[in-house]
């Protein structure tokens, strides 16, 4: 009878230690999951902020402003437009094979 009690006691101690280990692992994984969810929320909000920032950077007024200030560009007007005229004699006649391509 005492051998049976010792075996049951050893089984009880082993299962208790295993239960403590499993509960500790469960708490650790839950904390890690919570941190990962918080980081995902942070990354999602940063992604949304970057999308809004990208939309703000690509508005036509902003593009025109940057083109004027940084690149020194100006709007095309008839006064600054130069038209290139190709003389008729200099332009070769298109070949029929080239037209079919």
Topology, element by element:
Blueprint: H1 2-57, H2 60-69, H3 96-100
What does this structure look like?
There is one protein chain. The chain has 101 residues and is mainly α. It has one domain. Helix content is 70%, strand content 0%. The protein has 3 helices and no strands. The longest helix is centred in the first third of the chain and has 56 residues, at 2-57. It starts with a helix and ends with a helix. 0% of the residues are buried.
The average pLDDT value, as a whole number, equals: 87
Binned strand content? under 5%
Low-confidence stretches: none
- Secondary-structure-based class equals mainly alpha
Largest sheet: none
Range of helix content = over 70%
From the N-terminal CA to the C-terminal CA, the straight-line distance is 99 Å
Number of domains: 1
Tertiary shape: rod-shaped
Based on CA atoms alone, the radius of gyration comes out at 38 Å
Task: Write down how many β-strands occur, each being a DSSP E stretch of 2 or more residues.
Answer: 0
Order of helices and strands: HHH
Number of helices: 3
Keywords:
single chain, 101 residues, mainly alpha, 3 helices, 0% strand, cell membrane, transmembrane, cell cycle
Short description:
This protein has 101 residues and is mostly helical. Helices cover 70% and strands 0% of the residues. The protein has helices spanning 2-57, 60-69, 96-100.
